[in-house]
């Protein structure tokens, strides 16, 4: 497997973790809201409310683990991006980029001139 493929899969894993975090956070908010509503019901038993809060705490622990995994993963991915940038900077010559930009501008200018030329009509 190429290094590029490994990094692409690594990035995909980070995206999956952030998607999972988003879904877990929404569930967490819903569980907290449900526990709050349960607490406002007069006929609710204290044990039911404690159970609901226990579920909220368990999900909070899972969310903490996902956040920790994202922190570690994004740090490594950021280092990869920095390293890649430095390598690209070292390999690219400003002169070549300037020439390429000049040629593109020249070609665009020619296209504009020919589009505005009344002789073609």
What does this structure look like?
The protein is mainly α. It has 3 helices and no strands. It has helices at residues 3-40, 46-91, 94-116. Helix 1 packs antiparallel against helix 2. The protein is elongated, with a radius of gyration of 28 Å.
Strand content: under 5%
CA distance, first residue to last residue: 56 Å
| Total DSSP E strands | 0
Helical percentage = over 70%
- Rounded to the nearest angstrom, the radius of gyration is 28 Å
Which segments are poorly predicted (pLDDT under 50) over 5 or more consecutive residues? none
The ordered string of helix (H) and strand (E) elements is: HHH
What structural class do the secondary elements suggest?
mainly alpha
> What profile does the largest beta sheet have?
none
Shape: elongated
DSSP helix count? Answer: 3
Number of domains: 1
* Mean pLDDT across all amino acids: 84
Quick structural overview:
This protein is an all-alpha fold and 121 residues long. It has one domain.
């Amino acid at each position: 497997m190429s290094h590029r493929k490994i990094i692409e899969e690594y990035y995909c894993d980070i995206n999956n973790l952030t998607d999972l975090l988003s879904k877990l956070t929404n569930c967490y908010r819903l569980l907290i809201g449900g526990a709050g509503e349960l607490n406002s019901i007069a006929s609710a038993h204290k044990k039911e409310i404690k159970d609901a809060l226990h579920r909220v705490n368990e999900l909070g622990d899972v969310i903490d683990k996902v956040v920790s995994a994202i922190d570690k993963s994004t740090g490594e991915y950021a280092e990869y991006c920095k390293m890649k940038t430095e390598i690209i900077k070292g390999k690219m010559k400003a002169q070549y980029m300037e020439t390429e930009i000049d040629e593109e501008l020249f070609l665009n200018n020619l296209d504009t001139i020919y589009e505005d030329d009344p002789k073609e009509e």
